[in-house]
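TICKET #2291
ISSUE: user wants both folds in one file
ATTACHMENT 1:
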Amino acid sequence: MAEKQKTQAKPDGDTKGSSSPASHNPYLDARREWNERYGDYIARAKNWRMMAFGVLAVCLVQTVGLVVMATQNKIVPYVVEVDKLGTPVPVARADVMGKVDERVVKALLARFISDVRGVVSDGIAQRQMIERVYSMLSNGTRALAIINEFYKADPPFAKAATSGVSVEVNSVIPVTDKTWQIEWEETTRNTSGGITNKLRWKANVTLAFSTPTNERQIRVNPVGVFITDLSWSQVL
């Protein structure tokens, strides 16, 4: 009887050698094995992909920066004047507009008045005169509106059929650094060459200076002198 009880008590006391189904779950074992074998590979691959994208972004930024730098002009032209001994005297940047010579401004303003008020029988010459006038006018200025109204009220091509107007500029005087006063005399002749009228005029013009930025502006207005405001009246 005692031996039977001893034999029956052995399974209850010795549980270390028994195997539980939960401790050997094949799904958990497979999951653990997969993580151990491939989890590190996937993590490393993800890190490499992130680093590759980072390097690609840096290369893209550098490429854009190089393109921007390549499109910018890094050459700065200078004008150097030398004396008789070859020693450089003044040095100035050629791409920065300096002060325009007053004599040049006087010549341009005298030509402007002669072109805008003069009337000739040659249509090609008249057209060139009008083009020179507009080359010294800026868009959206009062001077441009006044010239447009003047040409509309008294078209030079229509006037040339019956008479011609010659202009003689008497004086071009600076009033301020931007305002100039011009005085001239207009002589009107008929188709036979006889004088029909002779009048004296005076004008005040306001100037602005702007460096030409393209080839066309360099050809028509190389020094960049523009008239922004204009008023003229007859001198009695």
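ATTACHMENT 2:
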Amino acid sequence: MKVGQNFQAVILAAGAGKRLRPLSLTRSKALAPLCGKPMVQWVLESLLDAGIEDVVVVVAALDDDVACWFRDWPGPGHIELVVQPEKKGMANALACAAPKLHKRFIMHACDTIIEPSTVEMLLTSHLDRGAACTLSLEKVHTPEQIRRTGIVAFEGERITWIIEKPEPEEAPSDTSAIPVYLFDPQVLDYLPEVQPSKRGEYEIQDAIKLVITRDREVYGRMVPNRWQITTCDDLLALNCDWLARGFTRTHDQATCIGPVHIGDGVTFGPGCTIGPNAVIEAGAVLGAGVTVRHAILLRDASVPDGALVENTVLAAEPA
């Protein structure tokens, strides 16, 4: 039996991704392309690979593009959608999902990817310790990184406190909790006690503090590799990383200088050169003599004859 059969999963996919424009003008952050698959598919498949069959997805609306994508998902697993009516933080998103949760669960942001083997390591560690909560940890290296995340205090691998987005001089360590959390279901009982932060959001870190205060055991495990997208620069860098890992696909109607990934239904004019480090989504149309390198062409993007597309994420013109 795979360890994931002891768990449910909650995928947080209600965010708009304002810093991902122009991509987020036409689709949700969860559907940002990564070498032929949306980000959320990589997340879902890593959970399924670990044996988690029961998945709850928090979306902004039942008719948004993320909800529609999950409804069309042809793969395995039992997937339920719940709506977070307003973007009020992770603890609020978890409260929306709570009625669907009945056993240990992993809560995973849609804009973060960890390796399937890391998912299994976290699940196994959580079970072996009988933890109330297990945090996924990584080192931070700059003051700006400290200001953007939750920083933990710990003794050994046991977490003794967590502070959301502290000033560097107030940070208790150089270790942050990334948005992949494992919880005992009793944690859900603490959510009604969480109060809104100064930003008006219900922070998951405040729920974790309640767990610590009630003398329940919270542990952390260092995550060896983690990828996250916040901006289009992040998205381009992540796609280049995935291309280097071998997630490539060429096309015989263009000169391809690998690594590249070219989707279905791309139209090429004569004399196009693609790559290195180029990702082109389905439906893109390239004129004659176009060069694309170190770039992403989003779905249905159009490029005129002779253009050079470089170091950018290019979207289709708004209708």
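RESOLUTION: both attachments delivered.
EXTRA DETAIL ON ATTACHMENT 2: The chain has two domains: 3-228, 232-314.
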